[in-house]
Amino acid sequence: MNTATQAAAGIPTVKLLIDGAFVDSRTSEWRDVVNPATQDVLARVPFATTAEVDAAVAAAKEAFKTWRKTPISTRARIFLKYQQLIREHMQELAAILTAEQGKTLPDAEGDVFRGLEVVEHAAGIGNLQLGELANNVANGVDTYTLLQPLGVCAGITPFNFPAMIPLWMFPMAIATGNTFVLKPSEQDPMVTMRLVELALEAGIPKGVLNVVHGGPDVVNAICDHPDIKAVSFVGSTKVGTHVYQRAALAGKRAQCMMGAKNHAVVLPDANKEQSLNAMVGAAFGAAGQRCMAASTLVLVGEARSWIPDLVEKARALKVNAGTEAGTDVGPVISCTARSRIEGMIASGVDEGARLVLDGRNPAIPGFEKGNFVGPTIFAGVKPGMRIYDEEIFGPVLVILEVDTLDDAIALVNANPNGNGTAVFTQSGWAARRFQEEIDVGQVGINLPIPVPVPYFSFTGSRASKLGDLGPYGKQVVAFYTQTKTVIARWFDEETAAHGVNTTISLK
User: Fold this and answer.
1) Where does the record place the Aldehyde dehydrogenase domain (predicted)?
2) 93 vs 37: CA distance, rounded Å
3) Catalytic residue positions?
4) What is the CA radius of gyration of the chain?
């Protein structure tokens, strides 16, 4: 279907943003943006051509010449305006997000809000992008550092947080003086594009922010392009590993936040009601499509007797379209995702895990075509089963049982992933021991999804992350800037003539 046919059919087309203008792609390859609750086609998104990617990068490269010299206070004021625009359009953004991604309206607002927090942090760039000064390190010699922008940077974002994760990336990159090329998920790009429109309205100049859409070819073009200096990625381990290796081979900085298997350890002294409520929300919220979802529960000692109560709480969750009032669990993103999740559930049964709550094939009146999978719980899970070894990325909770805290720590540390973990206990000693000995980047104590606020860095580790700097907080300022060290001496006429000195000394 060409662009003219799409327009005649009343299906809008998603634009590219190149050099400040929203333009129609000249590509012959398009993909439907589909409402996962109804299968209605909301829009068509282009897979940009190589020439279009090159044009976006060229625009960003040209804009960098002036943007890098823009006063830091001017940059900060743009993001002050931007955060206000996001607040004013919160409900509109959430509605777009729910329509194309499926999560509930309250969760969609949360998606936007967590991204808004990063925009607010970007508005404080004047206090973040600070160098260091040492005065008179030798006779008349000062040493200081400058944190200077890199140039053109790029971001590749996933489907599960189409507002928050783009807002993790381009605001901090642009606030630090870089220009940016964004590639949103081709599955739900519409809310991202609305956020981009608001960014331009806030005052981001033409060429400073550009957007291209596409699949593997566009990802590879971003990794390979010689004028792109840094790449940020959030998504699957398979793609993230590819992006990191390919971008690094091309000489770029890269940070890749990838897959997870987040364990929540519940000790028998934990507050039962609080722990179970937290686990059900963290496992099944957003239909389990969160890289920080608490998808793996480790019950220690007598806490294993809580499984029936956990099942009843999960069974009470309402599965429906994200637009419907009272919905707890919306659809998963696509028919393909639903089939993959159902296949994983079948493998758990085949491998001997106990299916204590089966969420397959829920009846959703009025949304019979939706990609729904209800809350699903396996008990008796062991390492080596597919449902434990692989990230399911759906509303499926797997339960393992151990005897002691030591056993739980050993189990978590043996898993290759290190995105997040949590412990539920009323013992300060046990919590402190857990946080010290656990080999995972982000730790929650009586809190199941330990995602930090933007003042702190996102610190996933091991197989969940490639690159040593996280996507926001203090670390991302270092990622998007180059430290330049300046050593300066100024002479007056009396001290200028000291003769030739052939030593390395600064005296």
Assistant:
1) 22-486
2) 18
3) 291
4) 25
